[in-house]
Amino acid sequence: MRPVPGEAKQRGLLVVLSGPSGVGKGTVVARAMQARSPAARRLRRSVSVTTRSPRPEEREGEDYFFRSEVEFQRMAEAGELLEWATYLDHSYGTPREWVEGQLEDGYDVVLEIEVQGAMQVRERRPEAVLIYMLPPSWRALRRRLAHRRSESEEVQQRRLEVARREVNLIPRYDYWICNDRVAPAARRFLAILEAEHARVKRWNVSELIGDTSG
Amino acid sequence: MRPVPGEAKQRGLLVVLSGPSGVGKGTVVARAMQARSPAARRLRRSVSVTTRSPRPEEREGEDYFFRSEVEFQRMAEAGELLEWATYLDHSYGTPREWVEGQLEDGYDVVLEIEVQGAMQVRERRPEAVLIYMLPPSWRALRRRLAHRRSESEEVQQRRLEVARREVNLIPRYDYWICNDRVAPAARRFLAILEAEHARVKRWNVSELIGDTSG
Asked: What is the separation, in whole angstroms, between the first and last Cα of chain B?
């Protein structure tokens, strides 16, 4: 992380990114992390714990930490999860300690999580930045889900139904992004982080002003 | 203005940019307007009315509208000014009608104005975005002011004194930008506008969501 002259070192942002399954959250975050800007360099992606089975292309520790129901329950009870939620019969959670360490070191940490978990974060961490990603149209979303050949028609239908209910929670989010194309969506995502760092309320004002006699 | 798919047409943002005299507000806005991004293309700079005399390089209607005290007073009383304030013995104001028209057409309008005027905008237009620009150091600011050879030492000293008092109002602003170098400062400025457009509270949510049966 390159310090900006005149800016004191600042704690990282806790960023929540939600949106219908299949909208492209992971793709947009991956693109944002590849950008050549200070905002991209200080971005880290949180890896969730889940009780569901890996899809063929998914890797342990990269896409998810795959854990048994018993182990997940133990983590939740031991307070090791920053938030956790159930979605389509499986549990998902965010490992707390790793996230805290990254924020402390000044990295912005993005959690790609469902609305249930997002509302827990909103409650527990009022300073978090909540972003909701929308598809350009619902037709486009159906098409993207249909391309996931590993899933049955029935699972796709349930994902769509969940999405249609969830969008009613958009007013609880701070920002929304339309994923019309990956590059502009990634640019908007990074712009939000850059702007949030510039919010006066996130700073100690006397530190900002500095020694006016200098 | 190129419409973004999935985004309804949106009213422009009323943006206030304040900061000590000599900090480089005009230079940063000019650079931002030259950028090749949607945020740059929808940016317009408001030209203020003033009662002070033009500096050699200043052009009527480009830098300011230069008006007599009597005419300025008339405009203020007729409600033709969105805000107005006195700074170092002269009056400055923002022509209301032009600004309203631009906002209506979807352009973001930036007012480079003093803190007095900014506080009037904060009061009258709660939806406005207030940004304060700081120099990398106070020493740097003194140096920049000294380069304005058209001004006496005494005027420079008064500008510095005003700046030292004004910074106490930074907590009333939404964002701050450090003008360490022009390019990154312009980038941060545009990021703030892009993020503000993405704020959920600036949208009609049912319009965002669209027809979920589609």
From this structure: 27
